[in-house]
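Lay summary. Proteins are chains of building blocks that fold into shapes, and those shapes determine what they do. In this project we predict the shape from the chain. Here is one chain we studied, written as its sequence of building blocks.
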Amino acid sequence: MSTLLKGIAASSGIASGKAYLLAQPDLSFKKIAISDAEEEVHRLHSALNAAKSDLELIRQQTIKLIGEDEAAIFDAHLLVLSDPELLTAITGGISDNKVSAETALTETTNHFVQFFEQLENEYMKERATDIKDVSKRVLSHLLGVKIPNPGLVAEEVVIVAEDLTPSDTAQLNTQFVQGFTTNNGGHTSYSAIMARSIEIPAVVGTIEATDIIKQGDLLIVDGFNGDVHINPTREIVQYYKAL
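And here is the predicted shape, written in a compact code that computers can read:
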């Protein structure tokens, strides 16, 4: 049955293809007491260094494939990873509260995110998104969990996700990724801006795309008016082919 989802037209154009649901990694963990704070701090620094290596590589790829301006977001992310106030708070949480690196990282970054999200200055609010993205990457290294890389997609698809982080969007292989749709985001979100830079159609803010769309569903993403057609009828397919 054909279904229509309405969202925000983030990047113009028409994309069609099979749905590829970008799964969120399982970053859950149990809060436990630790006996060796020094070992936890060592684990934290190892994860931070691994995250820095990831982001530096993505930054260089973005400069090469898209441009310096689009890669600037990763300079901001690298600064977060080196922020002395943030790092002191995390290591202090480990030592003072005798908790794991995972717990100290999550509790500290959540506190910083809440602080920045309450600010009225839009530029400062963006730091909350930066911290969320960076924290997720560091946590994945602590847990030994791989973050799905949309750059590995090797067939023509439309990406479907709750949201796309800057690193997700920068790694999209436009040879195969025809467009994307997300539950979250707006016209000025980073994923929307990047979609316009790499010139692929995108509809964001659909709220329920990942709940309704199934892997392999045929999608048409209308980046002009914010429509996402799921398993469209023959008439709808012909309409878009005629444009």
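What the prediction tells us: The chain has a mean pLDDT of 94.
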